[in-house]
Task: inverse folding
């Protein structure tokens, strides 16, 4: 049973740290607006209204992941959000390297990987869902 405790602790810290990091992107969108997101969405041929989904994907979903409410649905939303980031912001140079030798699309791929872990493992013991 000790390993289950470590598993739950690991999921809690994964959710907490990831959620805070991803939420910071959403707070930036709230503070500075999403005009650049609208431009990318429209320039790719999609309707502008899709750009408002960034608020769900970068504000609501990370908050739900942090508190452990609907973690699988929230993870799926963030996976879709990150896939859109890959398509819109990194599509032309998806697997390229930056000037420091790092992967251009490193963060979106990391976000997708973390969300896949949460999607398959759930929120663990320390979550709001356990309180209902």
Result:
């Amino acid at each position: 049973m000790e390993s289950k405790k470590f598993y739950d602790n690991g999921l809690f810290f994964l959710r907490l740290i990831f959620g805070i990091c991803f939420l910071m992107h959403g707070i930036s969108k709230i503070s500075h607006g999403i005009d650049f997101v609208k431009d990318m969405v429209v320039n790719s041929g999609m309707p502008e209204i899709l750009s408002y989904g960034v608020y769900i994907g970068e504000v609501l979903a990370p908050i739900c992941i942090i508190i452990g409410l609907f973690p699988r649905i929230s993870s799926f939303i963030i996976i879709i959000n990150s896939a859109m980031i890959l398509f819109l912001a990194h599509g032309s140079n998806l697997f390229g390297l930056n000037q420091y030798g790092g992967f251009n699309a490193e963060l979106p791929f990391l976000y997708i990987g973390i969300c896949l872990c949460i999607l398959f493992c759930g929120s663990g013991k320390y979550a709001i869902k356990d309180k209902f």
About this structure: The chain has five helices and no strands. The CA atoms of residues 91 and 101 lie 18 Å apart. The chain has a mean pLDDT of 92. The first helix runs from residue 2 to 32.
